[in-house]
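sry for the spam today, last one i promise. C-alpha cells for design, 117 residues
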C-alpha cells in the first residue's frame, strides 16, 4: 500500500533517529494518510480516496469532491482520479444541456398563436 495523499502528494520522508549519545540511525517519517470515502453529488455515490488531513481540508475548502476535481488541473491529479473527473464533467455537461433545453423561451410558433388570440 502506498502511503501517498492523492490531493497533496505527501509521501514518507527519510531522516535520522538521534539518541541521547548522538548516535544516528535511519528512520522513516510516515504521513497520516487514511482511506476515506467522499460523496460525489454529481455521480450520486461514494468514492474511496487516500487522503491526509490537510488534503481533506483542501477538498472541503473547495466545496466538496466534485468542485475540487473539476477545478484542479488534470496534470495535478492522481491517475486514479482522472476517470472520476471525466465522469463528473460529462454528467454536469449533460445536466446543463438539459437545463438549457428547458430554459429557452417560447418558440416562434407559440408566439404567433398567442398573438392570434
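last one done:
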Amino acid at each position: 500500500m502506498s502511503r501517498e495523499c492523492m490531493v497533496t502528494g505527501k509521501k514518507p520522508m527519510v531522516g535520522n533517529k538521534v539518541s541521547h549519545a548522538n548516535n544516528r540511525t535511519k528512520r522513516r517519517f510516515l504521513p497520516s494518510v487514511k482511506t476515506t470515502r467522499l460523496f460525489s453529488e454529481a455521480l450520486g455515490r461514494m468514492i474511496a480516496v487516500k487522503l491526509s488531513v490537510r488534503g481533506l481540508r483542501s477538498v472541503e475548502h473547495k466545496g466538496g469532491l466534485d468542485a475540487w476535481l473539476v477545478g484542479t488541473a488534470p496534470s495535478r491529479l492522481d491517475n486514479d482520479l482522472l476517470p472520476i473527473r471525466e465522469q463528473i464533467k460529462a454528467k454536469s455537461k449533460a445536466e446543463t444541456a438539459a437545463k438549457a433545453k428547458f430554459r429557452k423561451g417560447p418558440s416562434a410558433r407559440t408566439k404567433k398563436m398567442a398573438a392570434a388570440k
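The first helix runs from residue 53 to 62. ok im logging off now
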